[in-house]
Write a structure and sequence with these properties.
461 residues, alpha+beta, seven-stranded antiparallel β-sheet, 12 helices, 19 strands
Length: 461
């Protein structure tokens, strides 16, 4: 009997190895290490290398650059979940004197605060953090490039501010908070701010010659929360499981789901490209598949973490070169190879243990005007409303415990669904954010907005 933890088939494993081998050759990467997660565990790792010494493996540290931002976002959301701040709080409420006006915590998480992409020169990724000892040195005299909240503009200084926010509220360093609140609970003992052997050296590959140049590995100081971390394929694989499922010791499944919701006004090109950004997570549509995660780069290193929640498959790709391979494309391909070669086998359908008759009474067909919808009572205790066929507005609804339900997604997210009953207790109609759903198209026994023509339905003679 097939289980989610069954090892990958030999042909799938060979296809994965072939993909990273091609990626290492075409990208001229000194080393490339990858891992694939399925069903909550690592099911494959692979490596290709041309450097002297042992071949790096899933326990070798690489620098992961901006994947560090996702770790920082987790720390901030923990503060929110504990009631120590609100995402709508102006950052100045907790870090006064920065000159950031009304920029909120959520806007920094989603890169919509209007801040510059980089700190003032010299380039922070290739120079020591001691050149920027204070947040003011990171933000500069003119921190803004766009109106606050108007557009997505990726900002490394913004995540430096979020790291400082964590330090201010917790009263410990960003790295100490990260270690105690995320790394240790999740067992990520090979993730750290400074490299710990065995680790890969960072290289630049000459664009027109097959030769290497060693890259510096600087301590980024107050910019650490934007890109400091070193990690391994094995640790990031475990982190991927957490980002897909949550872990009560760190963040709930509901909160990590919130991180995966688009939170930015997209550029026109982003809409065409199918890319967006949540709360510390990148979202990308690739070959019809939604991938969430993050990419990272620092001189000498490229990294990617890609997760398909629907397929229950994730991939990690780490390389030690400044440019060349495309870890995000390789990661997307690793997810695709497994998802297509060995499609996820769903859990067996199971009926509800019990159902409230007043809820079951709502199941079946409903009409909004002349558009037909089906309402179902599902195994997870939610209501599901969607068109009979084709596209259209659909959503799941969570019970509020008072006879109403709240929409969880799409057009109806946050909207209230109420079953309106007649004096005799029978259901008259559903009210969904002022929309009236009736059992028959334009039911004249229900309060249809604008009323129903008393002559009723008729043909044309």
């Amino acid at each position: 009997m097939t289980t989610p933890h069954e090892e990958l088939l030999p042909q799938t494993r060979r296809a994965l190895l072939h993909r990273i081998a091609v990626g290492q050759v075409e990208g001229r990467a000194p080393s490339l290490v990858a891992a694939v997660v399925r069903g909550g565990r690592t099911v494959w790792t692979g490596a290709r290398s041309s450097v002297d010494g042992p071949v790096p493996d899933e326990n070798t540290q690489f620098r992961i650059g901006s994947i560090s931002k996702t770790f920082t976002a987790v720390l901030v959301l923990r503060l929110r979940d504990e009631g120590l701040l609100d995402l709508s709080d102006p950052v100045e409420k907790h870090l006064p004197g920065l000159g950031l006006a009304d920029v909120t915590v959520a806007q920094l998480l989603a890169h919509t605060g209007g801040l510059a992409a980089e700190s003032p020169a010299p380039w922070w990724e290739r120079t020591p953090g001691t050149l920027r000892p204070e947040l003011g040195d990171v933000l500069g005299e003119q921190p803004f490039r766009h109106p606050v909240g108007r557009r997505f503009h990726y900002s490394n200084p913004g995540y430096s501010v979020l790291g400082a926010l964590v330090e201010k509220v917790r009263g410990v360093s960003w790295e100490d908070a990260l270690r105690a609140e995320v790394l240790e609970p999740l067992g990520l003992d090979r993730t750290s701010g400074l490299p710990r052997a065995p680790y890969a050296d960072g290289w630049a590959v000459h664009p027109w010659a097959d030769v290497l140049l060693r890259e510096p590995a600087e301590d980024l100081g107050v910019m650490a929360s934007a890109g400091q971390l070193w990690s391994t394929a094995a640790d990031l694989a475990r982190f991927a499981v957490f980002l897909a499922r949550g872990d009560g010791r760190v963040l709930s499944a509901e909160t990590v789901r919130e991180m995966r919701v688009p939170a930015t006004p997209g550029e026109a090109a982003d809409v065409v490209d199918g890319s967006s950004y949540g709360l510390g997570l990148q979202l990308q549509r690739y070959d019809g598949r939604l991938l969430v995660g993050h990419s990272g780069s620092l001189p000498g290193f490229l990294a990617n973490l890609s997760i398909s929640v629907d397929d229950d498959v994730a991939a990690v790709v780490l390389t030690n070169c400044t440019s060349g391979p495309m870890p995000s494309l390789i990661g997307a391909d690793l997810v695709r190879i497994v998802a297509e070669a060995e499609p996820r086998i769903p859990e067996p359908w199971r009926p509800l243990r019990e159902v409230d008759p007043a809820v079951l009474e709502l199941a079946g067909q409903w009409y909004w005007g002349t558009s037909g919808f089906a309402l179902r009572v599902t195994t997870d205790g939610t209501l599901s409303l969607g068109p009979f066929s084709g596209g259209g507005r659909r959503s799941r609804f969570r019970a509020n415990g008072d006879g109403t339900w709240t929409g969880l997604e799409g057009y109806y997210a946050g909207e209230l669904l109420t079953a309106v009953r007649r004096p005799d207790g029978s259901v008259s109609h559903l009210d969904l954010g002022s929309f009236v759903f009736t059992r028959q198209p334009y039911d004249d026994t229900a309060p249809v907005p604008g009323g129903v023509d008393p002559e009723g339905w008729r043909g044309v003679g």
